[in-house]
Amino acid sequence: EVQLVESGGGLVQPGGSLRLSCAASGFTFSSYSMNWVRQAPGKGLEWVSYISSSSSTIYYADSVKGRFTISRDNAKNSLYLQMNSLRDEDTAVYYCARSDGNYWGQGTLVTVSS
Amino acid sequence: QSALTQPASVSGSPGQSITISCTGTSSDVGGYNYVSWYQQHPGKAPKLMIYEVSNRPSGVPDRFSGSKSGNTASLTISGLQAEDEADYYCSSYTSSSTPWVFGGGTKLTVL
After folding, report:
1. Which of A45, A97, A102 sits opposite B89 (nearest CB)?
2. Residue from the list B40, B47, B101 with its beta carbon closest to the beta carbon of A47
3. CA of B81 to nearest chain A CA: how many angstroms apart?
C-alpha cells in the first residue's frame, strides 16, 4: 500500500524556520518526482515546490522562492521542505504529493503566529 | 488569484448531472492534455478523480467524466449522490516555471 506521511508541522513565530518531512512507502520512491502543495485555512490548493526523481530539477512558487528549499533522500525514501523566514501567510496545511497526483499525504499543519 | 478559473459553487439534486468548468490559457489547459480533477472532503487530503483530461483512476465511479475544449476543461458528475458533496479542484501542467497550477476550487452542494 502506497503511503505518504508528513511530519514536522507546528507553531512558529514570524521569521522563524521549520523543516517538514514526508516519509514514502509502498512504491519505488526514487522513480518519482514529488511536490509540496499547501492549503491555507478555508482556501484552495496552492502548489509550492517540485523536485525531480534525481533532484536534478527543482521549481518553486514565486511566493516561497528564496525562503523555502525542497530536497529528497532516495536512500531514506524521504522528501523534505526547509522553510525559512516564515510569514503569517505561510500558515497552511502542507501536503506532499506524487507528481502523478494519485497519492497525497494526510497533511501537516504549519501555523505562523506571534 | 488562481491561475485556473472555476465557479465558486455549483449545486444539484440527487440523480441529476452537474458540470464544473475550469478555464485556463493556451499555456496550460489549452496546450497540454494534462488536466486533472481532485475531490476534497472537509479535513481530508485531495483525491484524484480524473487525470489526463478524461481518464479515471481505478476505483473512481464512471459517473465522473472529464473533457476539454480549447482552454476550458470540464468535470461532469452524473447521477449525483449525497457523498459527491465536496470541493473540487482542477489542475494543469503549465509551460511556465511553475509546473503544476490549480483552480480556485468549486464547492458542490447536493440539495
Report:
1. A45
2. B101
3. 23
Query: How far from chain centre, in Å, is Cα B52?
Result: 11
- Contact state of B48 with A47 under an 8 Å Cβ cutoff: no
Q: Which three three-digit cell numbers place residue B30?
A: 489549452
For B65, phi then psi, to 5°, come to -140, 155
Measured from the Cβ of residue B25, the count of other Cβ atoms closer than 10 Å reads 16
| Nearest-CA distance A69 → chain B (Å) | 15
Q: Give CA–CA dist A112/B49, Å, rounded.
A: 32
Q: What is the distance between the alpha carbons of residues B86 and A51, in angstroms, rounded to a whole number?
A: 29
Exposed/middle/buried for residue B69 (C-beta within 10 Å: 0-12, 13-18, 19+):
exposed
Pairing of strands B35-40, B86-93: antiparallel
| pLDDT at position B97 | 74
- Residues of chain A that touch chain B, judged by Cβ-Cβ distance less than 8 Å: 35, 37, 44-47, 50, 59, 61-62, 95, 97, 99-102, 104-107
Q: Is the pLDDT of residue B2 over 90?
A: no
Q: How far is CA A78 from the centre of its chain?
A: 11
B31-85 pLDDT, tens digit each: 999 999 999 999 999 999 999 999 999 999 999 999 999 999 999 999 999 999 9
